[in-house]
Amino acid sequence: AADEEVVGTVKDQLAKLFEESLRVTVPDQTDTDPLIAACNPRFGDYQCNNAMSLWTKIKGTGSAFTGPQPVGQAIMTNLPRSEMIESCSIAGPGFVNVKLSRQWIAKSIQKMLIKGIETWSPKLRVKRAVVDFSSPNIAKEMHVGHLRSTIIGDTLARMLEFSNVEVLRRNHVGDWGTQAFYKASKQRFDSDPGFKERAQQAVVSLQGGKEKYRKAWSQICEISRKGYEKVYQRLGIVLEEKGESFYNPYIPGVLEELGKKGLIEESEGARVIFIEGKKYPFIVVKSDGGFNYASTDLTALWYRLNEEKAEWMIYVTDVGQREHFEMLFTAAKRAGWLPPGDNSYPKANHVGFGLVLGEDGKRFRTRSTEVVKLVDLLDEAKSRCKAALVERGKAEEWTEEELEQTAEAVGYGAVKYADLKNNRLTNYTFNFDQMLNDQGNTAVYLLYAHARICSIIRKSGKDVEELKKTGALVLEHPNERALGLHLLQFAEIVEEACTNLLPNVLLWGQRRRQADSCCVKRLQRSCGNASIYLVFGQSTRYDILGEDSSHLQKDFDNYVWAH
Ligand code: ARG
User: Are 69 and 19 in contact (CB under 8 A)?
Assistant: First the structure.
């Protein structure tokens, strides 16, 4: 039965031990939570940082302690015995360093391997979240900005889903503003005031539900929708469209509520919400009576909170929209929909991302200075991969279908990976040669590494299923220990990536990089359990790339046991 219990992260498990120690060490400080953090590897694996703050609380209260160091010393002495811990030491003003036991690390990994990847998932506080991503605009092409939103949003959704959060994947399609009509006539819209007015009037008629306008509008939407669907299919992305128009019927009610709460004021014919510290107000009804992006987003937020009962609302767009979301969230806080701080739930976050740049360092455009079409990028990634495979003689070895499928997996994976590997806020240069390089930090390299590992397993000729039952995992070399610990910290890293909404943390943390390079070396000599890291790293990256990783999980297990 003890085997069945949910163990939690390494940090959680240590926190439990320290909690007990703190209860004994300072019995009257019952509200002290253990402060556990990873520590400098020279001193140990983790440290407990409670001594200093405890000392400031208890000094002068007649306590027997004479300073923070003795407090730390006592915390260390009172720590219950556990197979988890190999040794402890005190550093500086009472930090308690912990070195984990090698056997315990091995045993824990082994347990997790046997039980499957689900037991590696962190437990987040949130039950249901909305991830609002992709969200292109009707009658316009999806461009690289939407590519980023689509890839980052899908990854966040996957990370949260893995962490037991129910995710409502929302495509907040721009199907409702002037753009629904004016794309082809954009120039005229800008140069002919009469035309502009008629266009804006058309939007008001559409939003008012006039039949003729409705019909034209739904035809236009349908055409765009078909185009988007193709892209999502190619990238393996699941989304549920609830476009701007969906919220239209709810807008008047929501605005009425905000009006009653005294948030809405008149300004130059428009109805607005003034936001402290902002130059412009948040316009919720335009002077022509039309609703806009802000009215829709206020209403969507209301809907997600009240109708969909989401506790976390996540919006993935370029950083250029930061101001809009700041105003939106401030208004929601003033309305009492969201709590005042940023750390309690329900919570709303804008996940901004930087620009995609061309080789010239400027915003990525084609020669004709048009925006770069997403489909063209995907086509080129695929055809370049196919050419590379043909060059390697795969056309003779494989069927046409295999060739196509591989070119797609590698090509689209490369595009996704190049986007995800950087901190999302940094601008990055779009470069096919770089992202399709089979040596660098690329999807291509990872996919090749995975294929190599599979062949090692095959050639080992061992009965892995049998070994799995009888074998024992040993972490001999210091590098293997480091890798083992790193594997165990998987849940912590996923949790960090979710909390900070940063997919790149999962892909390529600093320690991960060290672990990778060391296990790759070992893998090349094709020996040692260290290689398990790479395989495991692979499967998490596969998840991120949107591939089904269940087969990899199996390879991973098999590989570990093949050694
Ligand atoms: N359609 C917008 C754009 O292309 C993005 C919408 C983002 N989501 C939202 N709820 N505002 O820029």
Answer: no
118-149 pLDDT, tens digit each = 777 888 999 999 999 999 998 887 888 899 99
pTM for the predicted model, two decimal places: 0.85
Token pair 């002037």 is found at 178
Sign of CA dihedral 19, 24, 26, 30: positive
CB 55: neighbour CB atoms within 10 A? Answer: 21
Q: What is the enclosing helix (H) or strand (E) of 167?
A: strand 166-171
pLDDT for the residue 369:
56
Nearest CA to ligand 1 atom 4: 136
Over the stretch 478-495, which tens digit does the pLDDT of each residue have?
Answer: 766 777 787 788 788 888
Atom of ligand 1 nearest to the CA of 173: 1
The neighbour count for residue 383, using CB atoms within 10 Å, is: 12
Closest CA to 277 of 312, 326, 317: 326
State the distance from the centre of ligand 1 to the C-alpha of 479, rounded, in angstroms.
Answer: 46
Mean pLDDT of all residues in 381-387: 95
In the reported structure, the alpha carbon of residue 292 is separated from the centroid of ligand 1 by a whole-number distance in angstroms of 12
How many angstroms separate the alpha carbon of residue 133 from the centre of ligand 1? Answer: 8
Residue type at 120 in one-letter notation: W
Q: Find the 294 Cα to ligand 1 centroid distance in Å.
A: 11
Token pair 């390079």 in the structure block, residue: 517
Instruction: Tell me the Cα Rg of the chain.
Output: 28
Q: In whole angstroms, what separates CA 311 from the centre of its chain?
A: 17
Ligand 1: atom nearest CA of 316 is 7
pLDDT in tens, 180-237: 655 567 788 888 999 888 888 888 888 888 899 999 889 989 999 999 999 999 998 9
Distance CA 120, CA 259 (A): 47
Using alpha carbons, select from 3, 4, 2, 7 the residue that is nearest to residue 488: 7
- Evaluate if residue 242 carries a pLDDT over 70: yes
For 389, the token pair is 């495979």
Probe ligand 1: pick from 148, 168, 179, 317, max atoms within 8 Å of CB? 317
Helix crossing, 478-488 with 510-524: angle to 10°? Answer: 130
Q: Which residues line ligand 1 (CB under 6 A)?
A: 132, 135-137, 172, 174, 297, 300, 315, 317
Decide if 356 contacts 144 (C-beta within 8 A): yes
**472 Cα distance to chain centroid:** 34
What is the identity of the amino acid at 270? A
Nearest CA to ligand 1 atom 11: 297
Q: Which atom of ligand 1 is nearest to the CA of 297?
A: 10
Lowest-confidence region among 329-333, 334-338, 558-562: 558-562
Which residues are within 8 A (CB) of 231 and not within 5 positions of it... i.e. 6 or more apart?
Answer: 142, 150, 237, 374, 375, 378
Q: Which atom of ligand 1 is nearest to the CA of 324?
A: 11
